Hints:
By secondary structure, the chain is mainly beta. The protein has helices at residues 2-20, 162-168, and strands at 22-41, 51-53, 55-68, 71-92, 99-120, 122-123, 128-149, 155-159, 172-185, 190-201, 216-233.
Amino acid sequence: MKKVIFSLAACCIVAAVNAQNKFYVLPSVGAGISNIHQTFYSPVVQESDIKNDVVFNYNTQLLLGYQWKHFVIETGAQYLTTGNSNEFAFVTVEPPQPEFLYRKVTYKYTSITIPVQIGYEIPVSPAFSVTPTIGANIGFNLSQQYSWKDLNDHESTEKLPNDLYGNNFKKTSIWGNAGVRLSYKINERIAIVGGPGFQYMLNNFVEDPVISSTFKSTQRNYSLDFNLGVRVNLL
Length: 235
């Protein structure tokens, strides 16, 4: 009888451990705001001459995760857009006198990143939980698109040619990421998840000038998004 009880207890323990240790997939989409942290080293261009502002951005990602008790580790792929807008002074030469007018230029960058992150699930109730996460991304930078309005408020959009993009911006980058994920369990396999996430480019995005010059700059893109997805536990 004791052997039977011991065997049943052992089976319950194994089942409980297996229930806490699981693989899962987590597709999600997100949207928010993006900007850049930028510095200039130039006797001509001063940082105060350019007024950077936020732009709308979005991301979509697919994560594969593994949960061990309350700890999670995740990796996958993400399509990420970042950018900024700024205002430059344009000079008109129309009578009665020259006039400085500011016109906004918007820049959008696209990247494919591979995130690796860890988190810790904090149960709030049988259905709700909160999971803070932190990690890093390897980014593969793809393109830059910019749009502007001329003095007649006519808007134009262009994509920076690939050769110019490669000469001005690094093709790979390292990002840091952090977020908080709220989860609502629908059943034992499916949960709705959502929450804020922050991503910041750690290395300088701008290539050093090919020819030595007095002008140098640094640029680090960042985004603050709200992400929404579905976590599906695998069998």
